[in-house]
Amino acid sequence: MFQSIVLLAVCKSNLEFTYVFAGWPGSSHDARVFRNSTLGKYLTADDCTLFPTEYHILGDSAFPLSKRLLTPYRQREILTPTQAIYNKRLSSTRVVIEQAFGLLLGRFRRLKSVCMKNVDNILKAVTACCILHNIALNNDDYTWVPIDSTTDTIRNEFVNDGFNNQQDITGINKRNSLASLF
Questions:
Q1: What is the pLDDT of residues 32-75, one digit of tens each?
Q2: Would you put residue 37 in left (φ > 0), alpha (ψ -120 to 50) or beta?
Q3: pTM for this predicted structure
Q4: What span, in angstroms and rounded, lies between the C-alpha atoms of 43 and 68?
Q5: Other CB atoms within 10 Å distance of the CB of residue 79
Q6: What span, in angstroms and rounded, lies between the C-alpha atoms of 168 and 137?
Q7: How far apart are CA 182 and CA 175, in angstroms?
Q8: Three-class SS of residue 87?
């Protein structure tokens, strides 16, 4: 029996994971996983002190816009040229997490089919692989086996989970200010 789980992660530009959260069934939407993660709870709290407010995390449209989590403008709206440029630049920087996941899966190919019956052990194995991934990067080990991109997909789709309609006004203002710089 194979269990599918969602891995929510944040990484730096060098592909090193700074936050990982595994534990929700693979059928769960990213927004629901985020909302129930410690990171999601911290970022949506008014008194968040994880990092200064001039810093932020980039996410896709599945996540809620806030002053600490910047997301793209919605494509269903008619975008201004400034908004379109912002979305393009956001997308080009978000590709880093996809590369980190690709490197993780290429390095630990058994993650594609972990043969364990106990879900807690699967979560520990996934988290351990993320830690080992970071150790390898810190030792300049970028050796990995490329994965077949036709069979691997990074979930990056928009699904309305009720969470997407919540747009923080400070997040809107911060995103607009950043977009105006482009």
A1: 899 899 999 888 777 777 778 788 899 988 888 888 899 999 87
A2: beta
A3: 0.76
A4: 6
A5: 15
A6: 35
A7: 11
A8: helix
Q: Which amino acid is at 57?
A: I
What gap in Å lies between CA 114 and CA 112, rounded to an integer?
Answer: 6
Amino acid at 18: T
Q: How far apart are CA 163 and CA 177, in angstroms?
A: 23
Rg of the chain over Cα atoms, rounded to whole angstroms, equals 17
Mean pLDDT of 120-127: 90
Contact 3, 121 (CB under 8 A): no
The pairs formed by 118-121 with CB atoms below 8 angstroms and a separation of 24 or more are 119/3, 119/5
Q: Between residues 102 and 176, which one has the greater pLDDT?
A: 102
**Residue type for position 36:** N
Is the pLDDT assigned to residue 16 strictly greater than 50? yes
Kindly state the tokens that stand for 148. 């077949």
**3 state SS for 39-85:** HHHHHHCCCCCCCCCCCCEECCCCCCCCCCEECCCCCCCCCCHHHHH
Which pLDDT score is estimated for 142?
67
Tokens of 32: 């629901």
Residue 157 half-sphere exposure toward CB, CA atoms < 13 A? 8
